[in-house]
What does this fold into?
Amino acid sequence: MTVDDFGAVFKAEKGDDLFRAIRASLQFEKVSGVDDQTKAISAKAQEALERIGRETPLNRRRVAKYGIIVPEQKPVEILGLGSPSIAPKNARKSTRRRGGA
It folds into this structure.
């Protein structure tokens, strides 16, 4: 299963079924003696929950109860625009004259 597959499953399930699906997917990270492929299940499930948590503040709170901490995003980060820029001092100024005609 891909990260997208896990996300689709988590969004489709409700109530106890959702709880069980998430807990089962995350449990492999805590089990000792499992191979990397099995641990990858938990990693993909966690990434899917992180993506869901980034969608809305409510989803961020929902995934937090499973131990998934998603930092709060600023509006600029949500839009993918990076840091807000500040116009440099030598930015072009208005050519309109002040005062008289």
Notes: The chain has five helices and no strands. Residues 3-68 form one domain. The chain has a mean pLDDT of 82. The two ends are 72 Å apart (CA to CA).
